[in-house]
Input
Amino acid sequence: MTREEYASILVPNITHTRKYYEELYKKRDLKEDAMVVRIGPSPTGSVHIGTLYQAIVAKRFASQTNGVCFLRIEDTDQKREVEDGVNLILNSLAKYDIGFDESPLEGGEYGPYIQSERKEIYGAFVKDLIEKDLAYPSFITEEEKKSITEAQTKSKGRIGYFGPWAAKERALSIEEVLNKIKDGIPYVIRLKSNGDFENKIVVEDCIKGRVEFPENDMDIVILKRDGLPTYHFAHAVDDFLMHTTHVTRGDEWLSSVPIHIELFKTLGYEPPKYAHLATIQKEEDGHRRKISKRKDPEANVLYYSEKGIPVDAVKIYLMTLANSNFEEWMIENPNSKLEEFTMEFKKMSTSGALFDMEKLLNIARNYLSKISAKEMYEETLLWAEKYDKEFADMLKEEKEIAIATLNIERESQKPRKDFAMYSEVKNGVWYMFKEWFTNNEYEWQKINDLENIKEILNTYFKEYYDETDTEEEWFNKVKLCCDKLGYASNMKEYKQNPDAYKGNVADVSTVIRVALTTKSKTPNLYDIMKILGKEEIKRRIELI
Ligand code: GLU
Output
C-alpha cells in the first residue's frame, strides 16, 4: 500500500489535493504594505466586547493600509456551539457597522468563511502531512491520556503528549493502524512534532515585542475524531490560504505561538506576523481580572444595545482603549471621523486594557449632547421600539413635544449632557406627555407645605404668568410673585437675612418646576413652560 492510499483511508472522502487549494487561493493583489487581517470569533454565545474590540482594531489596520479585513467564523468546536450562534455574531457585529471586506455574508474569493464548511480543505492538508509522514493517527482513549498525565505529574515532568509518551503510537505500523481502524477504534490525527524543548525560538510580536519561547515538541492533535481541525491547525491552514499578513488576536493565544510556528514550518510556509492584543480587564477589590461574560454584563455587546448606549460612543471608547494617543487626537481633531485616525501597534497596551464604564458613559454623554434633537428622537425611538413598546408608542404620538423637549439646551455651544443612553430618555421626557401626567409623586423640596405651594402656584399663574413673555420677562414675574408673597427675590439680600423671608426665588421656582414636572431638576423651566402651553400648565396646577 502506498502512503497515499494509506492517507486516503485515514482521511477519507477528500476530492482535492493540498496543491489544488494552494493554487486556487491565489496571492492577493495588494500593495506591499497592505495588511490583511481578520477576526475569528467562535459561535459559542453572545459576542464578547473583546471580539468587538478586536474587530475595530483589525478593521482600522486594514483600512489605513488599503488592505483587507475579513470575518471568519471559527466553529470547529461543535460541542461549545450554540444554536443560531453564527447569526448572533453577524447581527451583533453588523450593529457596530464594522463592514468586513469578506465574510460569510459578503462572501469573497477566499471562502468559505465558516470553518465547518472548509472541512475538505483541512482534510486535504492533513492527508498531505500523513503522506509525508509528518502526521499520524492516535487511538489513545481519554483514560490512557489521564494515566499519562498522572504519571507526568507524579514524576514532576511536563504535561502533554510528546517524545517518549508518544513513541508507542508514532511507531505503529501501517498494518497495526489498519487493524485498529477495522476494529472501529476511533482516532485523531496528530502532528509528528520535530521540535526540541531545549531549543529557543524568538518571535517579534507587533505589540508585545520580542518574546522568547522553547520550541514546541508536543504531538498536538490537528484533526479531531469528527473530522474537524483543532484551532491550531485551522489557524495555520486558513491564515495561509487566506493570505493573512497580521494575526491580531487575544493574548490568550500567545503561549500557543510555538505550536503555530511549528505548524507553519511543517507546512513549508512563512508564518504571518502576530499582534497579540491585551485582554480587556476589570478592576475588582483592587485586583485586575479579565472581563468575563459570566460575571460582567458589560462584557456582552448586547448589553450596550439593551441600555441604548450609542454605537459610536462604544466605538470611540474602544479606540481610546486600543491606542493611548487616541483621546489626544480626538481633542485636536474634533471634527474628524474615527476612520481618519492612524492606529499604531506601538501605542497598544502590552499588559491589559482596563475597562472603565464611567469613562464610556462620559463619552456617550458627550456624544449624545452633540447630536441634533431630531436625531436624538429618532435613535431613541429605534431603541424604544425594541425595548420599551409603550414609550415608543408615546414618542410617536407626541413627536413634536418629544423633539422640542429634547432640544432644550441642545444645539448650542455648551449643550446639556444629561443622557448617556437612550434608556435614560424616558425619565427625562415622560412628564412632558399630557397623557402620562396624572397621579404623580412630586419631589417637593424646601417649600413642601401644600398650602404654601398652592398659594405660590395660584398667585403666580393668575397674576403673573403670561404665555407671550420673553425669558427675561418671565423671570422678573417670578420675582415679583416672590416679593408679593414674602419670599426673597434677591439672593444676596436673602443670604444676608434669611430669617426675614419665607424662602427665596430659587425655592419658588422649584415649586413651579415640581408642580409642572414632578421633578426638582429639569432642563430650563422657561422652555418647558413654553412647550407645555397655557392650557396644560393650568391643568397641571389644578392637579395639586
Ligand atoms: N476562534 C478564536 C477565538 O475565539 C480566534 C482566535 C484568532 O483570532 O485566531 O479565540
